[in-house]
């Protein structure tokens, strides 16, 4: 199995979600199923069927998170330096619009573009890997080719 790169923050967030599902959500849904069973006929019991469906989602997510965490390769960006690689916080300027953007390159399970967390498998991240401050980068996006200049690289 291929290891999954992840920052310590991303790993901790997934571990916290797993702990919550096992210690809070799972017992709550078991209680809801027991309560719904007491209502009688299970064939026409919407509460029971809803609770069983939610239990299926919870159990599926637990298995998914356990699998991800078992394959996690936790990389601490604070111990890295140099050209852009996994964990780098990169500030770019769009060469056409002069708009500045800052992203951190993270693993796919912790990526969230709205929060500035860029999936390492994304076209922008793949184009940035190995570049240095001052380098110009062309990125093929669904909206066309974009040109960026790397303003700064930070590992924290």
TrEMBL record:
It holds the Pfam family GreA_GreB. Residues 82-155 form the Transcription elongation factor GreA/GreB C-terminal domain. One of its GO terms (molecular function) is DNA binding. Signal peptide: none annotated. PROSITE patterns: GREAB_1. Necessary for efficient RNA polymerase transcription elongation past template-encoded arresting sites. The arresting sites in DNA have the property of trapping a certain fraction of elongating RNA polymerases that pass through, resulting in locked ternary complexes. Cleavage of the nascent transcript by cleavage factors such as GreA or GreB allows the resumption of elongation from the new 3'terminus. GreA releases sequences of 2 to 3 nucleotides. This is Transcription elongation factor GreA. It comes from Ruegeria denitrificans. The gene is greA.
């Amino acid at each position: 199995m291929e290891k999954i790169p992840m920052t310590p923050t991303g790993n901790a967030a997934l571990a916290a979600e797993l702990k919550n599902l096992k210690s809070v959500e799972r017992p709550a849904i078991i209680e809801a199923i027991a309560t719904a069973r007491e209502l009688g006929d299970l064939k026409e019991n919407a509460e029971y069927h809803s609770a069983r469906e939610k239990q299926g989602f919870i159990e599926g997510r637990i298995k998914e998170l356990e699998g991800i965490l078992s394959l996690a390769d936790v990389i601490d960006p604070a111990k890295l330096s140099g050209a852009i690689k996994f964990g780098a916080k990169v500030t770019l300027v769009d060469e056409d619009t002069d708009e500045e953007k800052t992203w951190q390159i993270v693993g796919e399970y912790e990526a969230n573009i709205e929060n500035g967390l860029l999936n390492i498998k994304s076209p922008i991240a793949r184009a940035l890997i190995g570049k240095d401050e001052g380098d110009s980068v062309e990125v093929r996006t669904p909206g066309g080719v974009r040109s960026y200049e790397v303003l700064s690289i930070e590992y924290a």
